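Before a colleague's protein record goes any further, I have to sign it off. Thanks in advance; the entry in question is below:
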Amino acid sequence: MKLMIRAHDLGVKGEEAIIKAVAERGLDGVQLVAYKSVEDIKYEQGSISEKRASEIGKTIADRGKEIALIGAYFNPVHPNIEKIERGIAVFKDYLDCASAFGCNTVGSETGSYNGDPWIYHPMNHSDEALDRVVETFGELAEYAAERKVNIGMEGAFGHVCHTPERLDEAVRRIGRDNVRIIFDLYNYLDISNYGSAYDILERGLNIFGDRILLFHVKDFTVEDGRLCQCGVGKGVLDFEKILGQIYESNPDATLVLEGTVGEDIDYAISHLNKIINKMTYYSKES
């Protein structure tokens, strides 16, 4: 298994500072949202170039690290059409530059009719919502295929693709082999279903199989009837069980810490590495 982190959770800016923080912690790489991680890049069309992407990618690759995913998240069903068009344009910019970064996948979630923030809206579960997601991501998948790269899609409880089954339906309707899955267990949970977390993970593993690009790793506590994200290893999730399920399905899986920040980062890395090392040891012994 590879263990990585979302770059802007490190609390530093610029590729040199990012790779230093990654190397010091013994991580394998990052999920990179460039406009949140590098000061000279903005969330706007034309802000990233192949030259700049190549500089960033080379800095990371020269230290033997990887960019597992380029994040260019946008809301494809936002009530403001201009925001959708802007999101698509920025996403395409990153597809143009993906190979220069040394990464072959650009990803996003499937959004919400609520607009901002991306929370539950009754229209999210409608056929119209799914049709719009399929149309938009289908266009992006075709654009990506012309550049010999992939798109990544990520579901979430409050979004259009609110279950693994709904995301699978969208991907199957898109019908292209360059669509990868970003699997975030926490995203699929809320106060009504968190007790079924391990069943939801198992369903996702069975549904998506080797289409899963990476797993986001998050943890949470339950406070006043709601889920509150916390540092990995400090919440209610049993990561021995979770990593065991993932390892059984894909022993070479990529795990990306997301939303674990500050002093919680080192604890999370230690916590996960102990489990990974124990699993791989017993796997070799057997």
About this structure: The first strand starts at residue 2 and ends at 6. The chain has a mean pLDDT of 97.
